[in-house]
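Our consortium's second objective concerns turning raw sequence data into structural hypotheses that experimental partners can test. To show how far this objective has progressed, the report includes one record in full. It was chosen at random from the queue rather than selected for favorable results. The single chain below, 195 residues long, was entered without modification.
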Amino acid sequence: MARTIGLITELEVVNSVLSVAGDNPVQSLNDEYQPVFIIKQMLNNISRDMQTKNYWFNTEYDVTLSPNTLTDKINLPFNILHFEPTDTRYVARGLTVYDRVSRTSTITADITADICVMLEFDELPQVARKYIQAMCKMQYNDEYQNEDSLKRTLASEVNEAKINLDRTHTENEDINILASGRSNAIAFKNRRRGS
């Protein structure tokens, strides 16, 4: 199957974790070898935890959300991780927007919000994939192998991957903020949170 050259695949992450454990690589993510299932679950959990930080690649600003014309409800994406409406009267209740002032989920007008969603592994940028790979290797060793000789090396790999991820995030966020003219709104929002 064709793929973008250079991007780490989910299968490569699984095999890199297996190599830490001294296991042979597998040819497919559907392999019935029990550690493959464990690593896939670990990968998914680490990816979700990472993406809740609202990175540039999974966050959209000033999204207009419209109510369903049949139900008068605003439904949120199934993969949403964070919902921050411009008007704080609105909150997420499950996958439905709720109006705390009117105490109802019946909403007839559009609202605007910043939203963060969980992306599939193959939608992530390389720096995020590298961080997930490093975390999987370290966590798998900590939980199943406990090889002291590897701990320092794996921790260093995680630290380097996190630095690269955070640096790339800062660079991209600066570009996005300046391009969208949102710097004043963000400065105000941060000031409000700090008060």
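The partners drew two points from this record. The longest strand covers residues 59-65. The radius of gyration is 20 Å. Both points have been shared with the crystallography group to help prioritize constructs.
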